[in-house]
């Protein structure tokens, strides 16, 4: 039987792929130009298996970035099931800050991977923007934030997160910044 591209990966192949992504995330976050051979070795897979999954550094780095962005985005729905809308939004903002700070090395790897002429484009932050939109609309409908704030407004308001460096004690600064953003979102809310 011929293997088709849209056939799901066998479970062992899927485990190999996930293990490579997990090891690569840790390695590239620490060292943006970590050798692919070292990543394959730490993941416990052969070079052939590694390159079948990720033919080059760019493919690997962008897949990690997409995966991590999707994890942050997916957490919005989970938080809305567990917390009131306003609290879900603020908690999600903390997760976004954690992503921004702990993945700073990954950001360097992405810059390296996407800076080559003719190289791939940086992935779009669409899943995160969609998650922000969901959280904002839910909080707006609950009357706990001001009406009309768009995901674009929100992303611009929290852009200061990406100006901080992970080497400093970033958590208190991020919390203050995000509290200011929340104060601004609550100003003019139907139910402050």
From TrEMBL:
<keyword id="KW-0804">Transcription</keyword>
<keyword id="KW-0805">Transcription regulation</keyword>
<dbReference type="GO" id="GO:0000976">
    <property type="term" value="F:transcription cis-regulatory region binding"/>
</dbReference>
<dbReference type="GO" id="GO:0003700">
    <property type="term" value="F:DNA-binding transcription factor activity"/>
</dbReference>
<dbReference type="Pfam" id="PF21597">
    <property type="entry name" value="TetR_C_43"/>
</dbReference>
<dbReference type="Pfam" id="PF00440">
    <property type="entry name" value="TetR_N"/>
</dbReference>
<protein>
    <submittedName>
        <fullName>TetR/AcrR family transcriptional regulator</fullName>
    </submittedName>
</protein>
<dbReference type="InterPro" id="IPR036271">
    <property type="entry name" value="Tet_transcr_reg_TetR-rel_C_sf"/>
</dbReference>
<dbReference type="InterPro" id="IPR049445">
    <property type="entry name" value="TetR_SbtR-like_C"/>
</dbReference>
<dbReference type="InterPro" id="IPR001647">
    <property type="entry name" value="HTH_TetR"/>
</dbReference>
<dbReference type="InterPro" id="IPR050109">
    <property type="entry name" value="HTH-type_TetR-like_transc_reg"/>
</dbReference>
<keyword id="KW-0238">DNA-binding</keyword>
<feature type="DNA-binding region" description="H-T-H motif">
    <location>
        <begin position="35"/>
        <end position="54"/>
    </location>
</feature>
<dbReference type="InterPro" id="IPR009057">
    <property type="entry name" value="Homeodomain-like_sf"/>
</dbReference>
<feature type="domain" description="HTH tetR-type">
    <location>
        <begin position="14"/>
        <end position="72"/>
    </location>
</feature>
